[in-house]
Amino acid sequence: MQTQNETFPRQLLAHARIRPEKPAFREKYLGIWQSWNWAEVNDEVRALACGLAAIGFQRGMNLAIIGDNRPRLYWAMLAAQCLGGVPVPLYQDAPAADMAYVLENAEIRYAIVEDQEQVDKLMELQSLYPHIEHVAYDDERGMRHYRQKGLLSFARLQEMGRAWDQANPGKFDAAIEAGKSGDNAVILYTSGTTGKPKGVCQTHAALMAAGVGGTGFENLTDAEDILSYLPMAWVGDCLFSFAQAMAAGFTVNCPESGDTVMTDMREIGPTYYFAPPRVFENMLTTVMIRMEDAGAVKRRMFHHFMAVARRCGAQILDNKPVPLSDRLQYALGRVLVYGPLKNVLGLSRVRVAYTAGAAIGPDLFRFYRSIGVNLKQFYGSTETCAYICLQPDGEIKFDSVGLPAPGVEVKLADNGEVLVKSPTLMDCYYKRPDATAEAIDAQGYFHTGDAGVFDHEGHLKIIDRAADVGKMNSGAIFAPNYIENKLKFFPFIKEAVVFGHERDQVCAFINIDIEAVGNWAERRSIAYSGYTDLAAHPQVYGLVRDCIEQVNADLAAESMMGDTQIHRYLVLHKELDPDDDELTRTRKVRRKFIAEKYAVLIDALYSGKQSQYIETQVKFEDGRCGLVAADLKIEPCKTFPAVQAAA
């Protein structure tokens, strides 16, 4: 494994020298997988970097990168770094107005984008941010009649680059040689749950330390295959698809589109896989929907062997002692259920799978490990290159995020906040010395904003965001995220927001999963015209109530959580949406915004009303706005006697 005191361009040169024929990137295009080896990637990046130099891109400049996961966009990151510039990936699904803030903050003049859609967004932004001088696009479809100044194709930019390279011998190599490990390697913008996004500046040394540390921890080699489908602007993708891929030299596979991810995943069969909890929840929802539609014999077989898996699957995965009868039953289940199920999900070859970005429900975690998927949680943040805690094999706990990663020091502040000192810590927030000083104290510890506790074996448990943890009027600790994750384990519940801080009881907003509940409704011949209609149906309310009451029963059995059972709930008339500012681009709940926007519903929940009328403005994908109105029912649910905490 290479040392971390290098730059990524030098790492690329090393791969081209050591493993020139090894596949570095694959991309599915028009149904066919295209492949580039490390030697070819080295040539492509060189041509692109020289093309950028030819149009005036220089050391210290920032390069915007916008689009789905595409090999050429990863090469654009490397090309900018070769010249001493800094790539700034943006969320490709962000509306033009949301992009304007990041473009202005990062002082973007150059951009490399995926296709016509992203070009159109940048053109639309001219009135808000007129300073972009050069835009190169990868996909040429639909671009034939575009004649704007400074607009050129990726292929044309590389063509210019090859000519520039010939005319300026040695300049490209000198630019790489001038790079230092302390130079900024990327600027990643935070999701902005509590305000405007902040640009996190990560150096080559910090990002490489995270890449080398993670690959070493899991003994990853250049033989791994990873599927790259999560937003390039998210730190998780930057770690797995860029830093770790560059550290180990393994293959990054890009799906054809977001709609084909599951099909492409089955074709590739990744050995190393990363997904946020939402993706694992969606996979499980798909499985449960299919089982509901299966015949009675298949359903009985599935539920029988899943009971066996819950009993002993995780222990077998961890090589712990299991009775012979269970081991034999599990072996039969592997043939009849677990193996085919993993194949359908594209997880057959997975050696290690990771999840992070939000807490994963213990039940969801247990499900995957029980069928033989080596799923682990890790804990990190954008400011630490997503590298704080990891779970070692054989030491997996469903309610913890593991032990501090190699080279990382973790401690708790007096108020329970998690503090971190690490070689992977950010250099600063871009142009925000005030925010940097607030986040990193005089001793060099980063204040994560998360509340946590260590168990007796040193494993860290994250309770919630420190700012979100509150107290009920009874004095009980109120951890909303903990309760919400329990609710979201059910395939019928897509999103949940609970309230209870400085209240006598907990109440909840619920978003149903339209696919799972729609399938459930169709099998019961329940007619509905859309999300709002289905969400208001009495039988759907009953379905949601059953889920909530199961969660209440679980909470009642936990000594610290028994007083936080949900007493009243409503099913929202619309899905919470990043475009309506209710969720971040990484689908984290913007709790304060929701509390303000839906204050009338919260008042109705706590004032004992049985219904509440509301009109809500929504944004459509084409930029238009509209109103969604509904008279929402509010219903009570059963609570259970809480167990008493041990004295």
Brief descriptors of the model:
alpha/beta; Rossmann fold; Luciferase, domain 3; GMP Synthetase, Chain A, domain 3; 3 domains; five-stranded parallel beta sheet; four-stranded mixed beta sheet; 29 strands; disordered N terminus
- Highest CATH level, the class of the largest domain: Alpha Beta
CATH architecture of the largest domain: 3-Layer(aba) Sandwich
Query: How many beta strands in the DSSP annotation?
Result: 29
Question: Within the largest sheet, what's the order of strands?
Answer: 4-3-5-6-7
User: In the residues, how many domains can be counted?
Assistant: 3
Estimate the mean pLDDT confidence.
92
User: Roughly how many Å apart are the termini?
Assistant: 51 Å
- Annotation field: number of helices: 21
Q: What name is given to the CATH topology of the largest domain?
A: Rossmann fold
Quick one: biggest sheet? 5 strands, parallel
Rounded Rg: 25 Å
